[in-house]
Amino acid sequence: MNFFRSINFILIMAAIIFVSQTTVFAASATVTTQAVTNVTANSATGNGTIVVEGKLKIDQYGVCWNTTGTSTTDDSKTKEGKTSKSVTFTSHITGLLPNTRYFVRAYAAGKKIDTAYGKEVSFRTDPISPIVLTQSISQIRPNSATVNGTIDTLGTPHPSQHGVCWNTAGNPTVADSKTQEGEATEIGEFTSRITGLSPFTTYYVKAYATNTVGTSYGRVIDFRTNPLEPVIITRAVTDITTTTAVGNGNITTLGIPKPTAHGFCWNSTGNPKISNNSTNEGKVTTTGAFTSNITGLAPYTTYYVKAYATNTIGIAYGNQVEFTTIDALALTVTTQAVAGIHSTTATGNGHITDLGVTIPTAHGFCWGIESNPTVDGSHIDLGAVSATGAFTGDITDLTFGTTYYIRAYATNEAGTVYGKERTFTTSNAASAPRATVSNTPAKRTKQTSYRLQIAGMGVVSYKYRLDQGAWSEELPVNERIVFEVFSEGVHTLQVLGKGSTGAWQAFEEATVISWTIDTTPPEAILWNYPAGTVGSVAVDIRVGGVDVLAYRYRVDKG
Question: 120 near 31, Cβ under 8 Å?
C-alpha cells in the first residue's frame, strides 16, 4: 500500500514538473499549445498537439482565447471535434479585433476527464490601415486654397495624423508640403487650409491619414491657384498744358501673370475706365514708376485720371487724381492772297491776328493739290513767332500749270490752327512771258547812271532786283528802270515779266544782265610818232587807247 502511494507521488510530481511545457490529465494525455500563425487584423491560426495514451476518448478539442489571459473554454473557442488518437491540429480563429493582444491555449475535454489546457501563448492582430478620400478644392486664392477630405475608415489603431499633402509635380506624399490636422478619432469629413502657394500655378493634392500600418492616401486631384492682381498707384499729373498732360504712376506689385497692358485712363466726369480715353504702354516686366502722355484734352477743363494695369485676372486701377488744363485763348491766323506766282514758285502771305496764351512755336504755310492741306504734307516752317502781324514765305518746287490749295498755319501748346483756304495756279511754262532789257550798259563801263527799258512779247508789267537785293514793286512796262550805281565791280540785274493773263516769268528763268564798273583812268596810247633824230620840223602823232575819248598834251614841258 505504501509502495503505490510512493508511485502516485512520483507520478504527481512528474506531472507538476511537466506542466511547464504541457498539461497531462488522467496520466494518459498531453496538450501542447503551439505558436499562433497566419495572423491578420481579424483572424489567426491556432496550433496545438494532443498526445493520447491508452484508450482515452476526447470529446472536444481546439483552442480558446481572450484578451485578459488564462483563457478557458468559457471564453471564445474553436471546436475541432472528437479524437481518440494523438493529433497535431490547426484551428481558425476569427472575429478578432485589429491591433489587439490575445491569449490562446489549446484544450482537450471529455466526459470522463477534466478539461486540460496547453501552455498559454499570445499574439497581436495586425493593425488596419485607414481609408481616406480626397474630395474637392474650394476657396481658391492666389496663395491659398481649402481642401476637403473624408476619413472613410479610421483603421486600427486610429490615425495619429491626418491632413493633405501637395506639390507641383504630381503624386504628392507627406514628404512634400502637408498640413497636420492631428489625431483622427472618428470617421467623417475634414478640411485643411493650405497656404504659401504661388499665384497662377497648378498644384496636385491628396488627403492622407497615418497610423502604425503607415500612411494611406486619397486620390490625386489638381487645381490652379488664382492669378494675382497687380497693385498700382496713381501719382499727381504733371506738365499740364492747354491740351496735354503727363500721367504718373507706380506699379508696386506686378501680379501673376505679369500685366499685358498698363497706362492711364481719364474722363471729365469722374471714376474713369479704360473704356473711356486711355493710353496703353504695353507689357510690364518690372515694378516701378512709369509715365504716359495724355493728349487730346480741351483747354481749361477738369479731368479725372487713374493709372491701370491688366493681367488675366482683369483690370487693376489706381487711385483717382484730378487736374485742370490751362486756359488758352484761341490762336488765330488768316491766309492772304498768294503773290509772285510763277511756273514753279509763289509767295505765300499770311497774318497772325492773335497769338493765344502761349507763344506759337511754329508758323508758315502748307499747300497741296487737294483741299484742306495740313502740316503733315508739303509746308514751310518759319519758326516761332512772338508778335502778331503779317508774314510771307517762299513756296517752291511747284509744278507749272497746276492749281494749288494753300493755308497759313500757326502752332502753340493748344495745337495747330489754320487760316482760310485759298487757291492759286502756277503759270504754264510754255506760255510764260519773258522780259527783255534794252539800253543796257557795256560789259565794262565807267557808267554809273542808267535808264533801262523793259519789253517782251506779252509782257505788261515787271519787277526787278539789283545785286540779289529786294524785289521791286510791280511796274508797268512803259515805266523805265532808273537807278545809279557808284561802286566798282560786277553788278547783276534780274527782271521778271508778267503777262496779260497774270502769269509771271519763272524765277529760275529770270532775265539777267551783268556788267562791270571800272573807274580806273584810261591810258593814252601814241603811235606814228618820230623815232630818234629827224630832220623834219612837222610830225603827225596819233592818240588812242581803251576808253580814251579825249586827251590833252604839252611839248617840252610847256
Answer: no
